[in-house]
Design goal:
Elements lengths: L19 E9 L2 E8 H15 L6 E4 L6 H14 L2 E4 L5 H11 L3 E5 H9 L11 E3 L2 E3 L5 E4 L2 E4 L1
Parallel strand pairs: 3-4, 3-5
Antiparallel strand pairs: 1-2, 5-9, 6-7, 8-9
Helix pairs in contact: 1-2
Length: 157
């Protein structure tokens, strides 16, 4: 016996990019809260991180952020999709394991929480000296630490 069942019709209004694409989880005083995110929010956040970090096409990225958060998706997954490269994930953080994975995967970019960079520096795996001035589009900018900082996240090369 077969029962035919039609899928319900869902009316959608407005721009498709404004519709909910996924749910992330934030930490609030009352605990962990789900937050609906639109396609537009995800692309805007990821494109900003991608452009600020100047990630090269086909980069090999090593992400060490929780992907259940907006920042994890916007600074790791979206830039990876935009570059067409490879993404390796690392969690939880252990400096020796991170360094081995970075070497094994031949990562050109690592996406790290700022606190993790300090642990790498303490383990002797990150140089905290200022880098040379870099020129881009006629503008000079100074990079400090181990990479470009965006909201306490380092894009480490």
């Amino acid at each position: 016996m077969t029962i035919a069942c039609a899928a319900p019709t869902i009316d959608r209004f407005g721009e498709a990019g404004d519709h909910v694409a996924l749910v992330t989880f934030d930490i609030a005083p009352e605990g962990i809260v789900p937050v609906a995110r639109s396609h537009a929010e995800l692309i805007a956040g990821g494109l900003a991180a991608h452009l600020e970090a100047r990630i090269e096409p086909e980069a090999v990225m090593l992400g060490a952020l929780a992907l259940a958060s907006f920042v994890g998706l916007a600074s790791t997954v979206v830039p990876w999709l935009l570059t067409g490269g490879m993404l390796a994930l690392h969690h939880p953080f252990a400096p020796a394991v991170f360094e081995a994975q970075r070497a094994d995967e031949r990562c050109t970019v690592a996406v790290l929480p700022g606190a993790m960079v300090m642990r790498l520096a303490e383990a002797g795996q990150a140089d905290r000296r200022e880098h040379d001035d870099h020129e881009r589009g006629g503008q000079h900018r100074r990079r400090t630490g181990t990479g470009v900082h965006a909201s306490r996240i380092d894009f480490w090369r």
